[in-house]
């Protein structure tokens, strides 16, 4: 499959949908259409989110040319069926090409955080933050709340702005149109405030943090290389 010439906008819209049952695709299509209307040109679907069809339909209904939107998908854990699953994703989306194809769960590829950072500065690799708002655990942190007041912004805007300061791509999911606009219009944080946010690191995981035995999908954090 040829690479497209599209580059990846640094703010995207999340494509994962909680289990909405039969309404899942219709709800996803609604928030994706409003995101496209509000300037988002990067969408983050995956085969396993079950929203690829909604992504394709939203793009077509938006009237925005496919070439103007960065769309990718992700290989689920069936690593021996790559071509077949790319084709299924393309069929679901209704498109002939993807701008990028990721391995959703590279279980067998452990990395060292420091090594990752170093290799990124060397190979110019972009990193994407999923679950970028950090949920209410981060949103309600007093430092974040204080900075939100200082910048006349919402806590989520402060958190997303911090990601952008590190050149990390963000894909906040948002069904609410006003919040979609907020998340696409971020303040620039001062150096001293970025330092305050850096200092919040507690070495804790929020997403995929493991069950009561510390296992994620049956694997330990160490086995996953995280
Ligand atoms: N590769 C992976 O394994 C993986 C794992 C997790 C996520 N992801 C991707 O990352 C995307 C984002 O992750 P996520 O949905 O878990 O987390 P998130 O984007 O950090 O948070 C989404 C939640 O925050 C709310 N929200 C959005 N903007 C807000 C604002 N300005 N103020 C207050 N609340 C706000 C949304 O509410 P409303 O929807 O009601 O607006 C939604 O409940 C997913 O959709 C998916 O595409 C990938």
TrEMBL record:
<feature type="active site" description="Proton donor">
    <location>
        <position position="49"/>
    </location>
</feature>
<dbReference type="InterPro" id="IPR036812">
    <property type="entry name" value="NAD(P)_OxRdtase_dom_sf"/>
</dbReference>
<feature type="domain" description="NADP-dependent oxidoreductase">
    <location>
        <begin position="141"/>
        <end position="201"/>
    </location>
</feature>
<feature type="binding site">
    <location>
        <position position="104"/>
    </location>
    <ligand>
        <name>substrate</name>
    </ligand>
</feature>
<dbReference type="GO" id="GO:0016616">
    <property type="term" value="F:oxidoreductase activity, acting on the CH-OH group of donors, NAD or NADP as acceptor"/>
</dbReference>
<dbReference type="InterPro" id="IPR020471">
    <property type="entry name" value="AKR"/>
</dbReference>
<keyword id="KW-0560">Oxidoreductase</keyword>
<dbReference type="InterPro" id="IPR023210">
    <property type="entry name" value="NADP_OxRdtase_dom"/>
</dbReference>
<keyword id="KW-0521">NADP</keyword>
<protein>
    <submittedName>
        <fullName>Aldo-keto reductase</fullName>
    </submittedName>
</protein>
<feature type="site" description="Lowers pKa of active site Tyr">
    <location>
        <position position="74"/>
    </location>
</feature>
<dbReference type="Pfam" id="PF00248">
    <property type="entry name" value="Aldo_ket_red"/>
</dbReference>
<feature type="domain" description="NADP-dependent oxidoreductase">
    <location>
        <begin position="11"/>
        <end position="109"/>
    </location>
</feature>
<comment type="similarity">
    <text>Belongs to the aldo/keto reductase family.</text>
</comment>
